[in-house]
Every structure is written in structure tokens, then in C-alpha cells.
Amino acid sequence: MKKIFLALLLAISQPALAAMSLDKVILYLDDTPSARDDVVITNPDNETLYLQTEIFRVDNPGQENEQRVRVVNPDEFKLLVSPAKAVLAPGERRRFRLMALDRDLEEEKVYRVTFKPVVGKIKTEQTALKILVAYQALVFVQPSDGQYKVELVGEGDSYKLVNDGNINIEVVEVRHCLDDGSCKKLNVSGRLYAGTHLSLEDVPKDGELEVLLRGRKSERVRFPLNS
Fold first, then answer.
1. Which UniProt keywords apply (predicted)?
2. What per-residue confidence (pLDDT) applies to 81?
3. pTM, full prediction
């Protein structure tokens, strides 16, 4: 009997058709003793799902020197996931609890938690190909009084959106609007971590910019442009 196992591990930010599904992939926690949240994982497959977790600390998020460091030393664990391993029967749902141990933060901490299937037994008399897809959750541990502070800064003939706060915010959409009410969507979006910026190119000098921001809540802000 010939067996071939192929593990294809893809870390993605949104749920997709695969051998498991997550009810959320972005979590917000505070630096308080009771800070915790749950991720519910479902196994829709007709085979048993063997699952394990990995925790990565994200250093310098959103910057050129960003690094994702896997946390393996128990003394360095500031984010706990329980259970760390699980076996899900076909159709079963399992709750994974994430708990933050960071306290009195001046700036948010960013983590990525990978939920990774591992190969179980394949019973077949033929060549077997098994594809495993891992999902990764983005976890923000934020100061209890954390705030983002987005400003529009002119830079020569261009502009940039700067976050001078101590937590991140996602720029969902940017539109350039004229005084007559007409607006044009600009091709810019992304996550603004603390101390980072998004560049805006070819922005007219009149009217204003309307920016849709999304974090724990969403809001639209307007920035007048110099005529």
C-alpha cells in the first residue's frame, strides 16, 4: 500500500472553504486581568480533524523591519491559548480561549495565532493526497486607554496618513470629495499601526479627503485639503 502525504500550510486572514472554519480571525484584548476572548472552530469535514496551535509575537508591526517570532519559551508567553491541541470529530465545534497576560502597556502588542491541522491516518489502498490548510488569527492586546490618532500630513506634492496614537486602526476606504458633493475613491487601504503611515499619491489640492476607519468601532473622518 502506497501513501503520500502533502501538507500545504497557508496562513490567511479571512475564512475560506477548507477542512475547518473559524468564527473570527481578528481579536481585541485589553491589558487587564480579565482580558480574554474565544475563537470557535468547526470541523465540517467527514474526517477527524487533529489540530494544534502556534503563537507568534509580531515585533515592529507594519514597519520595514517587522518580524514574526514564534514563542516557544514558557517564560515568554504573554498570550495563552487553551486548549493548545485538540481533536475535532466530524461536525464538531470547539471553543479555543485566548487570554492576555500583558499588563500596563504603553503601546499595543500584536500577536498571530496559527490553528494548524496535522496529518491523521488515511486508510486507503490507493495513493492518498491530503491537503491541510492552516488559519491564522490576528490578536491585538491594547492599553485600556489606548487611542489611535490619524492625521493627514502634506509631503511635497503628496500626502500621507499618519497614526500618532498607540493602537492600530484599519483604513478601509479613502475618497476625494469636491465641494459639489461628488467623490472619487482612491486606490489606498491598509492597517495603520502605531507610528506608521500610508502614502497617498496624485491627490488633488482642493476639496477634502473622506477616510473610513475600522477598529473596535468604525468612523468616517474628513481632512480638508489646501486650495
1. Signal
2. 96
3. 0.84
DSSP output for 212-227: EEESSSEEEEEEEPP-
Instruction: Let me know whether 198 and 167 are in one domain.
Output: yes
Residues 119 and 161 in one domain: no
Q: Consecutive sets of 10 residues in the chain, 227 residues long: mean pLDDT of each?
A: 40 48 96 94 93 96 95 91 96 97 96 90 54 90 96 88 98 93 92 96 89 96 85
Residue 95 structural domain: 21-142
Task: Give me the pLDDT at residue 164, please.
Answer: 97
Look up the CATH number of the domain holding residue 180: 2.60.40.3970
If asked whether residues 87 and 53 sit together in one domain, one would say: yes
Please give the radius of gyration of the chain, using alpha carbons only, rounded to the nearest integer: 22
Residues in the chain: 227
